[in-house]
Amino acid sequence: MRLKSLIGIILWGSMLVACGPDNRVTLAEKLMAEKETDSAIAVMNKIKEPLHDLSKRDYALYALLMSEAVHRKQQLNAATDTLLLPAIKYFSQSGDSLYAERALYCKAHLDRRLNRMSDAMQSFLKALLFLQNSGNHEQLYRVNTWLGVVCLNQEEYSGKVRYSKEALKAALDLGNMFYKNMALCDISTGYLFLNQLDSALYYAQAAYEAALADSVPRQLPFIYTNLGSIYSQQGEPAKALDYINKSIALRPAKDTVRILSLYGAKLELFGKLGQYDSAYHYFQKVISSPNPSSVADAYNNMAKIYHKMGRASDAYPMLQRFIELSDTIRKYRHTEEAIALQELYKHEQLSVENLYWRTRAAERQRNVYWMTTISLLLVWVASAVYFIYRRNRNHLMAQQHQLVKKEKELAQQREITSENLRRMVELEQKEAKLKETFFRRLSQKVVQEIERGGNVILSDEDWDDIVQNADIIFNNFTKRLQQTYPSLNKDDLRYCCMVKMQLSQSGMAQVMHLERDSVKKRLKRIRMEKMGADSGVTLEELLYNF
């Protein structure tokens, strides 16, 4: 009896030790607090299978620390989301507001990295909820400041002002003069974009006075630039030029990109002052900038100056160069957006795979737990039956009741597993819809013109882009169509792309410059004559999963 009891105690003790805190995670947290990011990553990389080897809390903390580490190294990507989600879920439910806020703060920066500004706003706002009444003024300043950044990006300028004022309160509570000055500059910027120039000037001057009083000289270049922008918008180019010169004088010579940008501001101001030789002098400087936006603005401003001087023949090549640079910048931004969309698509795939493997891992963990528990119970029951069956029959029946209860719990767990599988199917359906949305967004030129009711004129190059996007998103969509239905010609494939884009027949008629009935007949001919489909099947249904 004593030997069997001792074996049971040893087994239970082993389980408790396995579920205890992992020293590697504790060490990694300490290293992260000491800003030893690379050392913390090295420690965490020694945990070969963290999802299986760590307790739920340790895994959540491991996921948070690893995400914070890649954020510090500016390496956030869509895969980081698979780490953050379990950390956010665990710490939000456990009520650990400190870790929950850190996880949400990290996710907000990930959302910004993936151009998901609405999601970033929601993550920052949730982080702010966990910070309420925490007394953590440092983090309150950071979260409110970043909320202002996101609002500015979303052109929600009143939100920029509101959150920057909250950041100012946190900076004052913290007693950090640099943060205070930054917040004042942010408030001024928000009012500038709202075109409330008196308020913008008030806070810019307050920032200037605070920089002098609090000995924060490194803020002065930014303050001078801000004051220059305000006076320029107020129609006082002479004052604006004075502040721009002060900003340039305080900047280190190595800060060439920023200085050249300020030269662009001087070019515009000299043009307003009618000092055209000086304007041309700074034009020659700005066009050497590595920043294409600064160069484009320089050509645009010089074209305006030549037009103002009545030199139309000189203004025309400047304007033409501005248009070329603008097209280049627009194509670059379009490429960035396409890359971001592809990364989002990969992220959705990772989320589906992650849910599947988490479900499998949770199921295996539950099976091991229940098998161990049932095995231990069986050993205990066998010992009890052997020694006290005749004297304690009622006690045995109580144990059997416990087994029945465990079986009910197992049944509930199976129901949970079935629910998770159902969610996986829904995510797969969401993935198919996401592909349609990506294709529609990549072809936004057509969609926007149709929604505005404009005259849609597509060149062969535009059609080539649409066909190329269809092939990228839907795995060689047009090529597979051509192989399956060889009689389809180029125009037929274009109609199939518009169907995949979810354009209405009216929209197709607007693109092809035909009557709606002609489009309807053309779609019917493609479906029945060239694809051999039954009359009861629509072309949309044929192409939905193609």
UniProtKB/TrEMBL annotation:
The keyword Chloroplast does not apply. InterPro entries: Bac_ResReg_Asp_Phosphatase, TPR-like_helical_dom_sf, TPR_rpt. SUPFAM superfamilies: HCP-like, TPR-like. Belongs to the Rap family. Pfam families: TPR_8. This is Uncharacterized protein. PROSITE patterns: PROKAR_LIPOPROTEIN (PS51257), TPR (PS50005). It is found in: Cytoplasm. GO terms for cellular component: cytoplasm. The chain crosses the membrane at residues 368-389. TPR repeats lie at residues 221-254, 296-329. Its main location: cytoplasm. It comes from the Bacteria. It comes from Bacteroides intestinalis. Keywords: Cytoplasm, Membrane, Repeat, TPR repeat, Transmembrane, Transmembrane helix. Coiled coil: none annotated.
